[in-house]
Fold this sequence. Notes:
The longest helix is centred in the N-terminal third of the chain and has 11 residues, at 8-18. The protein has one helix spanning 8-18, and strands spanning 53-55, 58-60, 66-68, 70-73, 76-78, 84-86, 89-91, 96-100, 108-110, 113-115, 126-130, 134-136, 139-141, 145-149, 154-156, 159-160, 172-176, 180-186, 189-192, 199-204, 210-216, 219-222, 225-230, 238-244, 247-249, 254-259, 264-266, 269-270. The protein is globular, with a radius of gyration of 17 Å. It contains one helix and 28 strands. It has a single domain (8-22, 37-270), classed as Single-stranded right-handed beta-helix, Pectin lyase-like (Pectate Lyase C-like, 3 Solenoid), CATH 2.160.20.
Amino acid sequence: MPRPAVPAAVTVLVLAVSGCTPGSSRADAPRDRPSTALGGPTTTGVPAGTTLEPSGSIVVDTPGQVVRGLEVRGVVTIEASDVTVEDTRVIADGYFAITVADDVDGVVIRDSEIDGRGRSGSAGSAGIVGGSPLLERLDIHGVENGVVPGSGTVLRQSWVHDLVAPGDPHYDGVQMDGGQTDVVVERSTIDLSDRGQTAAVMINNLSGPISRVRVRDNVLLGGGYTVYADGQFSSSPIEDVEITGNRLLRGTYGYAAITRARPTWVDNTDLRTGRPAEP
């Protein structure tokens, strides 16, 4: 199905803060772009000019394997350490587009696109689930939840947007429901500006404790509340969570819903006005 359009005003704001112009191209961009680049429409996904080879679902079970230049119609399952997936598009027909096993490490997924097929996809779908991967310059859309990270996951310079799924979806750009530690979300654009719920970043203790989470230098847009730090679901603590230096577009009900948690909230501002974005 066609992607829903990103609201024009939001697109202009994202392009402006990322230092790009609407006509920018990634065709000649080096793989190692400046670390200050913000994930957005012109800085993520499969590089322009890349030729993709059609593929069905794949299981990556060889340590050190590199998956490059595929258009996967199906799902990608990573069961080995030191795997790299790059310059690849995944058009998912399953519950999870990419799954990383929790007992592997050294996985890198970068310069790739995940299309969950929107209402033609699966209810409860997610773009990437599990493991401790480094996720860089990804374009994720058409799923219910963009990234469901395992402990040690780093999401960097990526663009999560146009979340669409069948059923009774509760949309989250990044969803942490407990049991995670050492998760970093940085220099990414997570856009729920076309959704009245749930959150650009969801942090809660439904399935266990949360600790050492860093959400920094992102553009976070919309949702019911833009950010949740919600400790009401169990006795498990939410601790050492830092939400710093982000630019936010206020959700339907506010910038943040904080319950039984004490995240560090510093230097977060409204994307449009530049004023402090207070929870």
